[in-house]
Design goal:
The chain contains twelve helices and 22 strands. The protein is of the alpha+beta class and 504 residues long. The strands form five sheets. A seven-stranded mixed beta sheet has the order 12-13-14-15-11-4-16, with helices on both faces. Strand 14 and strand 15 form a beta hairpin.
Length: 504
């Protein structure tokens, strides 16, 4: 497949509608969007021309990780494989069940702590596209109740798409430039509770790419379909779930060099034919590339590269077509070499995101928590604070204003903690130091490989959230000293064009 046909493939694919509904819901396993005017010209021409831990994860730590991703949803009796399952096995992945998927918690070459440190110092590659089903098993001993830390990729387009997004999120979608992203939250009507956290990328005037959590897949699908159906112009909104598309996260200080070198080696170009220059892509920006594998027998492939990630390190998330996911991932590993790049699993991903102060939905965020309570007020853009018009604005805007200014303020707040002694895990009670009063609970916690301290995240009563406040944390029946600490625990290293483009 040459470059012209590759562009044609992603811009004008055959449309397969598997689940039609009154909300124009459409699931398409092969479609992506490159909506710029220049891209459309290229597509038309193209189509016209041719129709420090041990190597084995302790069982206690593994059980803790499974509890961390525990779901209250129905039990899934099948185990599914992502498009990279065989690659995980080939590289010594220690596979565990998460959310119906067999996923690597670590690999044989590095322990969880070692993999964590490797990511901070070099670069790691994470499989976060837990949506591609290749195989299933029915062994009753393999019952699954754990949602993965993976992502679901969506495409929302049409004349009314931006209006819908401005209704269901507190973000200023109309002001979002093309090929820029914003972290946001899908909100419940009336309450302003968080349905899910999401990253929204504008690909064109009426085209958006959304990434949501795999653990919330069914809930999010029902929510989006319901919201489209309830909108003023449901027929003007097209929603697709990009099932089958792979998603890998390249994270760490060597990420730019590794990806730049690999793309240049593959003779990749953007849609206008320009050479790759990742240094000009900043945090929260994306770009599409046509990639050519060194093997002449392998087709070209379109990928989307977004600068960002879930570790606090500089890095990229790469969306890859289904039939190219393993090829491209193996190519990245081979081209970089093991002295620069290693695969990393769920264990390191969890400790990295906690050091970065990032939330895990279902634990640090849920349907009852508002963005203000969660310390995510920065996702509520300035114009939305005055104009409102989004779900739950009556609750959220009052929480943004302190009581002295006529608001309510939040009743509780998300905090970071440094805990002495044993690490505090999810569910541990947070107590006031002057008595037996419970003021909150831990939602995530683990030893920090970078800091050599026990870190945790949780919620406490408003007023007890200020940095330096001392509390007691009940760990295994014993009170441990905790100190409220600003997050991120480890400074973020995003590649930003200007201050204020990201938290941290």
């Amino acid at each position: 497949m040459n470059k012209a046909s590759a562009i044609c493939r992603v811009l004008h694919p055959a449309r397969t509608q598997l689940a039609p509904s009154r909300s124009s819901r459409c699931f398409n396993t092969s479609r992506h969007a490159f909506p710029s005017a220049r891209s459309s010209q290229l597509a038309t021409a193209a189509c016209a021309s041719q129709s420090t831990q041990s190597l084995t994860l302790p069982s206690r730590r593994r059980q803790m990780l499974q509890r961390r991703h525990a779901s209250t949803g129905a039990v899934d009796h099948t185990i599914k494989h992502t498009g990279l399952y065989d690659l995980h096995i080939k590289h010594g992945g220690k596979m565990v069940p998460f959310g119906g998927f067999s996923m690597p918690v670590q690999y044989s070459d590095l322990g969880v702590g070692e993999s964590h440190t490797w990511t901070r110092e070099k670069a790691s590659l994470f499989d976060v596209g837990h949506m591609y089903v290749l195989d299933q098993g029915t062994d009753e001993t393999e019952r699954i109740t754990k949602p993965p830390m993976g992502r679901v990729q969506h495409r929302l387009s049409g004349p009314a798409a931006s209006l819908l997004l401005e209704k269901i999120t507190p973000s200023s979608i109309t002001a979002l430039p093309n090929y820029h992203s914003t972290l946001s939250c899908l909100l419940h009507p009336s309450t302003g509770g968080i349905v899910d956290d999401t990253v929204i990328t504008r690909l064109g005037p009426d085209t958006f790419y959304l990434v949501t959590n795999a653990a919330c897949r069914e809930k999010d699908a029902a929510y989006i379909e319901e919201q489209i159906a309830a909108s003023d112009h449901p027929s003007h909104i097209d929603w697709q779930v990009l099932d089958g598309w792979g998603l890998v996260a390249l994270q760490g200080p060597l990420s730019e060099q590794i990806l730049q070198d690999a793309l240049l080696a593959s003779k990749a170009t953007d849609l206008e034919g320009s050479e790759v220059d990742l240094h000009r892509i900043y945090f929260g920006q994306c770009k599409h590339y046509i990639v050519n594998h060194p093997s002449p027998s392998t087709d070209s492939a379109p990928i989307m590269v977004t600068r960002g990630g879930y570790t606090g390190e500089d890095g990229f998330e790469i969306s890859i077509p289904p039939d190219w996911t393993r090829t491209f991932t193996q190519f990245l590993l081979d081209h970089a070499g093991a002295e620069k790049l290693r695969l990393a699993g769920l264990g390191a991903r969890d400790s990295l995101r906690l050091e970065a102060g990032m939330c895990l939905y279902g634990h640090d965020l849920n349907d009852e928590t508002t963005p203000v309570e969660a310390g995510l007020s920065w996702v509520i853009h300035k114009d939305r604070r005055t104009g409102g018009g989004f779900h739950g604005d009556g609750v959220i805007l009052r929480q943004l204003r302190p009581v002295k200014d006529g608001g309510t303020g939040p009743s509780r707040r998300r905090i970071g903690l440094i805990v002495e002694g044993a690490p505090a895990r999810e569910g541990a009670k947070i107590m006031a130091t002057n008595g037996e009063e419970e003021i909150g609970q831990v939602t995530s916690g683990c030893p920090s490989p970078t800091l050599g301290k026990n870190i945790a995240m949780g919620y406490v009563t408003n007023g007890m959230h200020k940095a330096g406040t001392e509390v007691s944390v009940l760990v295994r029946g014993k009170k441990r000293k905790g100190v409220v600490t600003k997050m991120p625990f480890v400074a973020s290293k995003y590649w930003k064009q200007a201050a204020g483009t990201a938290p941290g």
